[in-house]
Amino acid sequence: MTVATLGIQKEIKLADRCRFGVGGPADFFVEVTAAEDIKAAIMYALDHNLDYFIYGEGSNLFFDDKGFRGLVIRISGGKFEVSSGGVVRVDAGYSLPKLVRDLAEKGWGGLEFLGNIPGSIGGAVVGNAGCYGKAIKDVLIDAQVYSVKQNKIEEWKPKDFEFDYRHSKIKYDPDKIILSVNLKAVKRSPSEIVREIEQELNERKSKHPHTAKCAGSFFKNPKEMAAWKAITDAGMADANVGGAAISPKHANFLVNSGGATSEDILKLARMIQKEVSSKLGIQLEPEVRYVGEFSVRGI
């Protein structure tokens, strides 16, 4: 397929395409939905010797100020369907909060805990999104995964992902791309589902900077204590570097308070890690991904 056929654009500012609002221009950028278009975009990158990076809604990452030297592929949109037995087949680009609410309208629940987590279905599975002791792995039946090197679609069961806390084995593997998933839902009263979702949203807004430019919880919770408490106990709750700052609402949320650069975020994150390690002996591991000029890089 050609650039025109796929709709590939050039020099697209990535700050406008992630929730953190940080990132320079991508050499090439394309937004796709269908499985065949996802595969075609990847093949285009390979045929033209381009590095590529694939993501969904961009709610758990930030891009480098220099942008990306290659093709950035954003998977968005799609559709879902529910069987009479409660099996939900949904495309990877579908919005997670939208899915939970759309299912609620049809009287299907069981996914309420995911209702206010921003992101796409594919991204949620890749990062094993969740809250309150639950994660998407708990409702995952299987997923259709495209293996780039083998050029074939595979069916993965939950065990194949080797899920861990906010992690799966394909989180940093550009060879494995989720195309769609099957989730399990249960019959519930639509009004009860909506009430639970809205109640949790109000609680979330009271504790989290829900509308801020950020990527959600920045660090994973270590086994010793919650990440926000470790940051606070280390005296870092009001730290900032340039336009990057710790939210006054929640110490584990690093936010773009205005004009933040990727370097600001990296410096602040590393400063927090250093202080928490030095003062508490706790190693904070990032939950958020940093996308460098050519690939995902460590923070």
From TrEMBL:
Keywords: Cell cycle, Cell division, Cell shape, Cell wall biogenesis/degradation, Cytoplasm, FAD, Flavoprotein, NADP, Oxidoreductase, Peptidoglycan synthesis. It is an enzyme of class 1 (oxidoreductase). Its main location: cytoplasm. InterPro entries: FAD-bd_PCMH, FAD-bd_PCMH-like_sf, FAD-bd_PCMH_sub1, FAD-bd_PCMH_sub2, MurB, MurB_C, MurB_C_sf, Oxid_FAD_bind_N. The keyword Oxidoreductase applies. It catalyses: UDP-N-acetyl-alpha-D-muramate + NADP(+) = UDP-N-acetyl-3-O-(1-carboxyvinyl)-alpha-D-glucosamine + NADPH + H(+). Its cofactor is FAD. Residues 21-188 form the FAD-binding PCMH-type domain. GO terms for biological process: cell division; cell wall organization; peptidoglycan biosynthetic process; regulation of cell shape. Pathway: Cell wall biogenesis; peptidoglycan biosynthesis. The active site is at R166, S217, E287. One of its GO terms (cellular component) is cytosol. Gene3D superfamilies: 3.30.465.10, UDP-N-acetylenolpyruvoylglucosamine reductase, C-terminal domain, Uridine Diphospho-n-acetylenolpyruvylglucosamine Reductase, domain 2. One of its GO terms (molecular function) is FAD binding. Its EC number is 1.3.1.98. It is found in: Cytoplasm. NCBIfam families: murB (TIGR00179), PRK13905.1 (NF010480). Cell wall formation. Belongs to the MurB family. This is UDP-N-acetylenolpyruvoylglucosamine reductase. It comes from candidate division Kazan bacterium. The lineage of its organism: Bacteria, Bacteria division Kazan-3B-28.
